[in-house]
From TrEMBL:
Family designation: Belongs to the polysaccharide lyase 1 family.
Feature: compositional bias, Pro residues: 16-26
Origin species: Brassica napus (Rape)
Gene: BnaC05g43400D
Classification lineage: Eukaryota, Viridiplantae, Streptophyta, Embryophyta, Tracheophyta
Cofactor notes: Binds 1 Ca(2+) ion. Required for its activity.
Identification of the protein by name: Pectate lyase
Gene3D superfamilies reported for this sequence: Single-stranded right-handed beta-helix, Pectin lyase-like
EC identifiers of the protein: 4.2.2.2
UniProt-listed GO biological process terms: pectin catabolic process
Amino acid sequence: MGNLHGLHRSHHHNAPFPPSPAPPSSTSPYVPHMTVEPYCHVDSSLRSLAGKAEGFGRAAVGGLNGPVCHVTSLADEGPGSLREACKRPEPLWIVFDVSGTIHLSSFVNVSSHKTVDGRGQRVKITGKGLRLKQSENVIICNLEFEGGVGPDADAIQIKPKSSTIWIDRCTLKNYYDGLIDITRESTDITVSRCHFVNHNKTMLIGADPSHVTDRCIRVTIHHCFFDGTRQRHPRVRFAKIHLFNNYTRHWSIYAVGAGVEAQVYSQCNIYEAGEKKTVFKYITEKAADKEEAEAGFIRSEGDWFLNGAKSCLSHDKEHHVFSPTQHYSGWTVESSTEKLKKYIKHSTGWQNLPLPPDQLPTTA
């Protein structure tokens, strides 16, 4: 957890958005000063994570109001296992007493009001992943996911009708299907400080054009590192997506895909091209309840395009994109600079952090 040099802005309702940043140089209009990264206090105590997400998942408190539950076994199931803890119906703050790999033969269903907190250990999940099925109020923090197998294997699968979720500081790589999939009316979700690597179909939001009820989906993705993954950073249908301060580099097809009715607000992100240059791709599809096919909508504010990256924006459609201020009053955003880029490269994904001391929630 470190400090970040750069421009710190906390947006509030009706506040103006920052102009497109210049590349870092002595003539940059921004005056660097010391600022503090988002969530700088969440490791002060065990439950300080609760309710600290920025964006659409900001209300997630996880297992704040339940006891601490200790995972003592790396077994797929049975006493002391992660599976056993996640299926319990009551609120729980789940921590790990062991480090190592948990090989899952099937998805672990995470029930409502859970925090799965990997701080203090190094836990890798493989084989299958975590599934949030009609779950609400879940936090997943500081885990590694690698090597999922089977045609339906996602690292974190959020469907159907799950809500109020925060995924923070996870490393995700090399699953057969997706790394994070958010579909089937799942909404109010924040994904932050995650590292995505060695994967093809990285993040899908919105199932397919027939699922018109996915119009309710709202997701914030920020301070994430999409590190050479091929596509879907994310791939969106119907949903409202706020992307800010992410670093996406060396994709192999496109960076962000906007399908039917998607609204993507891309703010102060860094897009660094490799061989492929297209950043934003409009994907024309026909919603099941509409007569004509159409693509989604994208607005870019303050993004930084490197190494020949081409935004390929359709500016006549920008006015169709929502403003985050319609949904939340503030969030922390830095200008897209070299300092932000270096920070994201080194401060995303699983972190070697001690497990903070627990402080029981106070009651009135």
